[in-house]
Each structure stands twice: as structure tokens, then as C-alpha cells.
Amino acid sequence: MLCAAGVIVDDDGRVFIQRRSATRKLFPDTWDIVGGHVEPGESLEETLRREVTEETGWQVSIVLGTIGEHRYRGDDGLERLETDYLIRVDGDLSRPRLEEGKHTAFRWIGPDEVDVLDENRGIDDGLVRQIIEGGFALLRQIGL
Fold first, then answer.
1. Which residues contact 60 (CB under 8 A, 6 or more apart)?
2. Per residue in 23-74, pLDDT tens?
3. What is the CA radius of gyration of the chain?
4. In whole angstroms, what is the distance from residue 95 CA to residue 103 CA?
5. Where do the domains of the chain lie?
6. Is pLDDT at 143 greater than 90 in this prediction?
7. Is the pLDDT of residue 122 over 80?
8. Alpha carbons 60 and 140: distance in angstroms, whole number
9. Does the record's keyword annotation contain Disulfide bond (predicted)?
């Protein structure tokens, strides 16, 4: 199953995370990045743009680069191949429109705050932290 996700970065070099609802079947009550499954006929970038808008109300303004691909198996037994991008968005970054019933909270974190993602470790084996650390590394590499 193909997926696309984005690590959204703001002008201060912080990244956006959102908490998944406790009722979600996959990775319940964990911090996550924006993204989802590719729908029939969609490209990865089309999926990324759709998911950002659905989950936050924002619009992707620029894809800064590709963080990488990550393969994982959810507790639903399905294997996923996720391509993760570092992106900027347009919209009121202080007021995302979280998807009702799917996400319950959000925050912006800097590189010195990634430890908050360790609470996911028992559920996602550190995957979200790894992706976000990759996003911060790419930010440094491109000089932002």
C-alpha cells in the first residue's frame, strides 16, 4: 500500500505534528505527521497535497525535498511504503483545521523537542521521530 506524507516546516524551523484520535485503528493516540494512502489514479504528490488540505485546511506551497521512503507494517497487518517530503504550506499556521474524529491536538516542535515523539515508540517503533529527524537534517542540508 503506497502512502505519502509531509513534514510541514514553518518560518522558525519548527515542524508540525498532530495527535491521532484514540479511536483510530492504526497508531491510536500518537503524534503523527500529515499524510495518507494513495487513492486510485493519484500520484504521490497529488496524495500529499490532498492529505495536507484534508487534515489541516492548508495548501502545499512548495515541496522542499524528499526525506525518504519508509516501509512499515501497521497493526492491521498491511505493509505500507511511505514517501515522506519536507514541505511548506500556505494558510494560518496558528489555526489548522484538524480532521474531526481523526486528530485531537497539534503542536509545533523544534529539533530540541523531538523527545516528545518517544511516547510513540511502543506503537510505531520510533518511525515518526525518525522521519522528523530526517526532516530537520534535510533543513540543515538545504540551509534553511
1. 6, 48, 49, 52, 87, 88, 89, 90
2. 998 888 999 999 999 999 999 999 999 999 999 999 999 999 999 999 988 7
3. 14
4. 14
5. 2-141
6. no
7. no
8. 21
9. no
> Alpha-carbon distance 71 to 127, whole Å?
10
C-alpha cell at position 87: 514541505
Burial of 35 (0-12, 13-18, 19+ CB in 10 A): buried
Contacts 24+ apart (CB under 8 A), 65-69: 65/138, 65/142, 67/7, 67/131, 67/134, 67/135, 67/138, 68/131, 68/134
